[in-house]
Amino acid sequence: MSKALGIAFKLTIVIVLLGILGVSIGVLIVSLNIQNDYEATTEAPPSTTPAPTTKYVDPNVDPNFKNIPDGPIIATTDTRYAKFNQISNLFESWMNTTIDPCDDFYHYVCGKGQNTGERSPFDISKSKDNQVTAAMWKVPAAYWTSAPLPVKQMKWIYDKCQKDDSFTVEDQQAQQKKMMQDLIDYTKVDVPFFVPTTKKKLDKVTLSKLTGYTKGAYGAFVLLTAFVSTDFKAPDTAPYITYIDQPLPMFIPDVYTDANYEKYKPILAALLAESISNFAFTMGVKIAATTTMKMAGDMVDFDRLISNMQQDPIVRRQVERNYNPYTLAELNTKADQFDWVAYLQSTLTLLGDNKDAKVTDQWRVIIMEEDITLNQLNSLIKKTDPLTLANYIYFRGFDQITGSVPAPPKLRVRADPLAKYRATFSRDKRTLTGMLRKPLPPMQANIAAACSGILDNILPWAASRMYVDSDIPDKKDRQALKDNVAEIANWIFFGFRSQLDQLNWMDEKSKQGAFDKLNKIQLNVAFPDWVADDAKLTAYYDGLDINENDNYMNQRLKLTNYFHLQEVLPIVTEPARDRGDFSSFIGITNAWYQPQMNSITFPEGILQEPFYSPDFPLATIFGGLGAISGHELTHGFDDQGVQWDGIGALNAWMSEISQKSFNSMAQCVIDEYSSFCPFPGVCVNGENTQGENIADNGGIQAAYKALKAYESLNGADPRLPGFGSSFTSDQLFFLTFAQTWCDQDESEAGFESQIRTDVHSPAIYRVLGTIQNFPAFKNAFNCPADTPYTPTKHCDVWTSKPF
Ligand SMILES: *[C@@H]1O[C@H](CO)[C@@H](O)[C@H](O)[C@H]1NC(C)=O
Fold first, then answer.
1. Which end of the chain is less crowded, N or C, counting CB atoms within 10 A of the terminal residue's CB?
2. For the segment 268-324, what is each residue's pLDDT rounded down to a tens digit?
3. 325 C-alpha to ligand 1 centroid (Å)
4. Which of 38, 100, 112 has the most ligand 1 atoms within 8 A of CB, as the residue to mutate?
């Protein structure tokens, strides 16, 4: 098994891990997810009021209703009856049929469940995932005896993580001090906090070594943001390469606005000063409180300058402009505040002697956000007080170190006082990945769950092995799941192919590029096969030196070290990339598209009820998992996806003229979603969410075409029993699509926060925006023209013949 699997994704994993620990960089921004706070003003956006004669009529009440479903109701003796009945009950528990679907489809589908406290489909699935994840540790003892080594190692760490009291807080501090001392020894300068009278400027080699080593050895991003990935432009021929991105701030942008800064600066400075005192205590040094406070304030000012430098995320959607190859010699002349050879060597410090042979001044790296990374940062460093600059780097190094050394279990409750202000980011392939929805924070209901979460993230393939063993023990069932889901996905590909065929705005050559991309899609379902193979799993984790007798602190240090080494190892080993890389632990409710692989991944954690069961009615399978497949597929064809080709190389395949047509299609979507304003002045950011919205819209088209094609070949399913018996197949399709997004309505603060931090539109607009563009909805629910959900003017996303 190739070592390349997953390596390039570990950056995100580190960040998530640190998030779990409640320390250092990765904690999610304060998500003001205030629920049950719904007010009437959050109803669907204003539109023309339908004339009274056009009111939706409940078919149960009015026998003249046009869309009366035909065909028989499913027989109680049918093997699928139980699932049909379950679906019927699910609709009943959520739907408020007194609401007019043409007027407010979202609340028609979700309105009752919102009032009765139904759990959202995502929550239901997530809690099943959590149950499996908890259960996978409770298997009979015999499982561990015969398990491959990495799984045994998981168990050793998991057990120790919860109970190992064989080390003390003093041991923890001694370890932190040692790691800090390693950094000091490496750079040969003392920590300026402790000798604030030394105003000496760090020379550029020292500055570079300091910045590079904190990243290479401890995973901190200070000033420069380096990560290793495949070469975007030559993923199969070139070895792995280092990318260097713009500097990242410590804190969220909200605290740095002109309006807020006066209020937040003293708060942040006080919190930093507290951490600096801990730092001094650990190092056995005393500093006066006033000195600390002044230095902390200067560091916050400096962080604000870094925060203000950040490139607009909308501009960052253009990947081509971020691919700027340089040799280190060129960088040395272009950005003279760093010694780039010293920096790169330091980021690769875990490679040992290997790095020095590799890194000469002819070594190539890719610079992202060129102007910021090279010019703006260079001038900022030049004009910053040397003491502040040095303090800032040392502090972030120390901050990272404190986060990576665990305390004994009983004392592991220590909260990170800075947590709620910390900026969240990831700088790896995932930043390009189209997810079904924003990843949910990992579970950490208790110490067992938190320990499991650490392992799921750091050793995702050993964890995935345990997950599949626990969730689907029977090999036949595993294959059936993979086959069934692949069949659905292939029907959706078929639907999308027919859309491409009929597209009237794309020239032939560009269409060839699109077909090629579609034909080469890599489909990953449930789990990677190799994790179920003992020999392959063991070989993959070959370098993981974790023993049963290690104490937990040492296990964790070894894990973290292993992790940082895997991140840079491909620079030396130059493995081939694996397009079947799932990129994440499989026990999660999400799905994603990776442009660098041209792959779609459905982890096992989402392939379950309420999203999917092989015995569900077809219309609900296509409206649920089918629309999700269509969403991920269309990410390959959204504003970012079209920059990548069939093998996952950064290589746009559209002609200029077709790209223009694509752009006006995207603009239509941008304008449509920008007009969704749940509160005065609080509107969806159409540009920032365009990729997700294009994916939702193209995806449902493909899923609906697939359903129609499937039904014309195989015939329609029988009707649901009970409550659901009044719905046609088409209606079930739309109901399921909307139900996927059922959740509590957001408060104003919740909307604001989501709009600011999420590339996905709020749930209600994912439904409204998509259905508005879909004429088949109008027929399915017998809606008059120009109701809110059926505007005459709409966007045709990846289709010239919308149904
Ligand atoms: C259904 O919606 C109507 C209109 O908004 C509301 O008055 C009613 O309480 C809702 N019913 C349920 C069960 O939520």
1. C
2. 999 999 999 988 999 988 888 888 999 999 999 999 999 999 999 899 999 999 999
3. 59
4. 112
Which residue's alpha carbon is nearest to atom 5 within ligand 1? 99
Using left for φ > 0, alpha for ψ between -120 and 50, and beta otherwise, residue 733 falls in alpha
Residues 250, 256, 261, 266: what is their CA dihedral angle, to the nearest 10 degrees? Answer: 0
Contact present, 587 and 603 (Cβ < 8 Å): yes
Shortest-distance Cα residue to atom 7 of ligand 1: 98
Nearest CA to ligand 1 atom 1: 96
pLDDT of residue 234: 93
Please say whether the beta carbons of 16 and 725 come within 8 A.
no
> Tokens standing for 184?
């000091």
- 99 CB within 6 A, ligand 1: yes
Atom number of ligand 1 nearest to Cα 112: 14
Helices and strands, number each (H, E), in the chain: 32, 8
Could you tell which of 56, 98, 103, 742 is best to mutate to test the pocket of ligand 1, judged by most ligand atoms within 8 Å of the CB?
98
Average pLDDT over residues 546-550: 94
- Name the token pair of 348: 């690769």
Compute the Cα dihedral for 158, 161, 163, 166 and give only its sign. positive
Q: Is the pLDDT of residue 325 over 90?
A: yes
pLDDT tens-digit map of 175-190: 999 999 999 999 888 7
**Which residues on adjacent β-strands are paired with residue 228?**
242
Give the torsion sign (CA, 462, 464, 469, 474): negative
Amino acid at 740: T
Closest ligand 1 atom number to CA of residue 116: 14
pLDDT band at 437 (very low <50, low <70, confident <90, very high): confident
Q: Three-class SS of residue 603?
A: strand
The answer to whether the CB of 362 is under 6 A from ligand 1 is: no
- Rounded to whole angstroms, the Cα distance separating 756 from 750 reads 10
DSSP 574: -
Q: What is the pLDDT of residues 499-520, one digit of tens each?
A: 999 999 999 999 999 999 999 9
376 CA to centre of own chain? 29
Give the distance (Å) from ligand 1 centre to CA of residue 67.
Answer: 24
**Residue 44 in contact with ligand 1 by CB distance below 6 A:** no
Residue 289 exposed, middle or buried by CB count within 10 Å (0-12, 13-18, 19+):
exposed
Three-state DSSP at 783 gives coil
Strand order in the sheet with 324-327: 225-229, 241-245, 364-367, 324-327
Q: Which residues contact 16 (CB under 8 A, 6 or more apart)?
A: 26, 442, 457
Q: What is the mean pLDDT of residues 607-633?
A: 96
- Closest to 35 measured CA to CA, from 671, 590, 754: 754
C-alpha–C-alpha distance, residues 757 and 437, integer Å: 12
Q: Could you give the CA distance from residue 355 to residue 600 in angstroms, rounded to a whole number?
A: 35
Ligand 1 centroid–CA 194 distance in Å is 65
Q: What is the dihedral of CA 63, 69, 72, 74, to 10 degrees?
A: -110
N-terminal to C-terminal alpha carbon distance within the chain:
45
Closest CA to 369 of 382, 360, 378, 357: 378
The residues that bridge with 365 in the sheet, in sequence order, are 242, 326
Q: How many residues does the chain have?
A: 803
Q: What does the alpha-carbon distance between residue 435 and residue 591 come to, in Å, rounded to a whole number?
A: 6
Ligand 1 centroid to 287 CA: how many Å? 63
- Asked whether the bond before 610 is cis by omega within 30 degrees of 0, the reply is yes
**pLDDT tens-digit map of 332-384:** 999 999 999 999 999 999 998 877 777 899 999 999 999 999 999 999 999 99
Element (H, E) at 210: helix 204-218
What pLDDT does residue 39 have?
25
Give the pair of three-digit tokens for residue 729: 């197949």
Q: Which residue has the tokens 């801990």?
A: 278
Q: Reduced to 3 states, what is the DSSP secondary structure of residue 600? A: strand
